[in-house]
Amino acid sequence: MTVSKNKFGVPQYPLDDARRLFVLASAIDLLERPTPTAIDDLTGIDKSSIDEQVDKLREQYGMVIHKFGDIYRIESWGDVLNKESVAKAMRQDA
């Protein structure tokens, strides 16, 4: 399956692809000020769906992610995900 990339080289995985959540987690970790607008700009993930997607990361993967105002912060990657492995989803060759 060929996956297109946006202007920043971030793969644009289908909506139902788990790697899309991994891109979100990587963006939160990577960005200095990970607001919904900044995450949307970098990843192409619609800012109106980010809270819902963050909830999935919490529920399905055990991540601890806090939101302070509009800024997200990862406290823990949980027991399932590995930060370095998750980051590979953002660098995936299309």
TrEMBL record:
InterPro entries, alphabetized: WH-like_DNA-bd_sf
Name of the protein in question: SMC-Scp complex subunit ScpB
